[in-house]
Specification:
The chain is an alpha/beta fold. The protein is built from 9 helices and 19 strands. InterPro entries: FAD/NAD-bd_sf (IPR036188), FAD/NAD-binding_dom (IPR023753), Metab_Enz_Cyan_OpOx_G3PDH (IPR051691).
Length: about 375
C-alpha cells in the first residue's frame, strides 16, 4: 500500500499544474501517468499559446510541457510514477488500484485525489472507416511532432475546430498537401486566427459536409480515395452532392470525450453536457466533486483548451491542499487570481458554449 496526501491522476497540463499548486501549498503529492514522460498532449503541440503571461502566451505547447515537467521533477514534495495506469477506484475505502510498468499491481491510499485524465478522440461511422491511412488528429501529431514521420502525402482533414485547423497548418508546414478541411457544422468551430492561417495557404474549408465513404487501393489495401457529401440543416446527407478526393490520409478531428471512468467508479454524480464533450461530473467552484475529497481538472471536467486545463489544475491543487489544512494565508488571493484567469479565457462569444455548459455542472 502506497500512501500520499494528494494523488494526481494524469500528467498532462491540468495534472502538472495541480501537482505544483498543491506542493507549493505544502502538501505531499504523487502524480501518476501512463506515459513514459510527463506533459500529456503538450508534448506534441508545436503551436504557440494565446492568453496572458500566466497562461504561457507566445510559448509553444511542447516547451510549456518541458518547463512544467522539470518544475515537477525538481520539487521535493512531488513523487512521480510514470508508465503507471490507475485502472480502479475502490469506493469502500477510497483506494486507487495502479498497474505499474505492466509488471506489478499496487494500491494507493490518498487523503485527496485529483482526477486529470483528459479526454479521448471521437471517431466517425462511415464505410471503410478502419482503412490504413485513417488517423485521429492526435496520432498525426504524434507521428509528425514527436517522431518526425509524415503520415502521407495528401490529406483530407475532417473537422474545422481548433485541433483540425492547427494540425492542418502543421501538415502544410511539413510539406504534406492538405486537399481540404471539411466540417458537418454550418460554421467553422475553431478560432478565426487558426482558420485564417490555413486559408492563406489556399486550403479550402467546406462546411456542412461529412464523410460518406473511404475506398482502398486494390494492391495495398490502404486508403486511396475519400468521398464526402453535404448535410442539410437536420444533419441528413444530401444525395447528389458527393465530392471525391484522392488522398492517402484522412485525419479525423471531430472532438473529444472526457475520460471519466474513474469518476463513474467513484460514484461521482455525472451529467451529460454536450457543450463540455459528454458526461462530466458535478462540482463546486473549488473543482471538488460530489464525492468529498475527489477533485477534477482539465478535459475530464469538460473539454476546453489547454490554457483552461492548466488554470483548472491550479485551482484543484490549491483547493485540495487547502482542504488538508495547508494555507499560509495566500489561498484566497491565489484562488481568486485563477478564477479571474478562467473568466478571461471563457469570455466573449468564443467562450459562450463553455459558459453555457458550466452553468449546468457548478453546484
Amino acid at each position: 500500500m502506497i500512501r500520499t496526501e494528494v494523488a494526481v491522476v494524469g500528467g498532462g497540463p491540468a495534472g502538472l499544474m495541480a501537482s505544483l499548486a498543491a506542493a507549493k501549498m505544502g502538501a505531499n503529492v504523487t502524480i501518476i501517468d501512463r506515459n513514459s514522460r510527463l506533459g500529456g498532449q503538450l508534448v506534441k503541440q508545436t503551436h504557440m499559446f494565446f492568453g496572458s503571461e500566466k497562461q504561457y502566451a507566445s510559448i509553444r505547447g511542447v516547451d510549456i510541457g518541458k518547463f512544467l515537467a522539470s518544475e515537477v521533477e525538481r520539487n521535493p514534495k512531488i513523487k512521480t510514477m510514470l508508465d503507471s495506469t490507475v485502472v480502479a477506484y475502490y469506493p469502500d475505502d477510497g483506494v486507487l488500484g495502479v498497474e505499474v510498468e505492466e509488471k506489478k499491481w499496487v494500491k494507493m491510499k490518498a487523503d485527496r485525489i485529483i482526477i486529470a485524465t483528459g479526454a479521448s478522440e471521437r471517431f466517425l461511422p462511415f464505410e471503410n472507416n478502419d482503412l490504413p491511412g485513417i488517423y485521429g488528429a492526435g496520432a498525426v501529431q504524434t507521428l509528425m511532432n514527436e517522431h518526425g514521420v509524415l503520415p502521407g502525402k495528401n490529406v483530407l482533414m475532417v473537422g474545422a475546430g481548433n485541433i483540425g485547423l492547427i494540425v492542418s497548418y502543421q501538415l502544410m508546414q511539413a510539406g504534406v498537401n492538405v486537399k481540404a478541411i471539411i466540417d458537418a457544422a454550418p460554421r467553422i468551430g475553431g478560432y478565426w486566427v487558426h482558420a485564417s492561417k490555413v486559408a492563406r495557404l489556399g486550403i479550402p474549408i467546406l462546411t456542412s459536409y461529412t464523410v460518406k465513404a473511404a475506398y482502398p487501393n486494390e494492391m495495398t489495401g490502404a486508403l486511396e480515395r475519400a468521398v464526402i457529401w453535404k448535410v442539410d440543416d437536420k444533419w441528413q446527407p444530401v444525395p447528389g452532392t458527393e465530392k471525391v478526393f484522392n488522398v492517402d490520409v484522412m485525419c479525423i478531428a471531430v472532438g473529444l470525450s472526457p475520460l471519466a471512468e474513474l469518476l463513474w467508479q467513484a460514484g461521482c454524480q455525472m451529467v451529460y453536457v454536450p457543450e463540455l464533450g459528454g458526461h462530466v461530473p458535478l462540482r463546486n467552484e473549488n473543482m471538488e466533486t460530489t464525492v468529498p475529497g475527489i477533485f477534477v481538472a482539465g478535459d475530464v471536467a469538460g473539454v476546453e483548451e489547454a490554457s483552461s486545463a492548466m488554470m483548472e489544475g491550479e485551482l484543484a491543487g490549491l483547493s485540495a491542499a487547502k482542504s488538508l489544512g495547508y494555507d499560509d494565508g495566500t489561498y484566497e488571493d491565489k484562488k481568486n487570481a485563477v478564477l479571474r484567469e478562467l473568466d478571461t479565457l471563457r469570455s466573449g462569444p468564443v467562450g459562450e458554449k463553455i459558459r453555457k455548459g458550466l452553468s449546468r455542472v457548478i453546484i
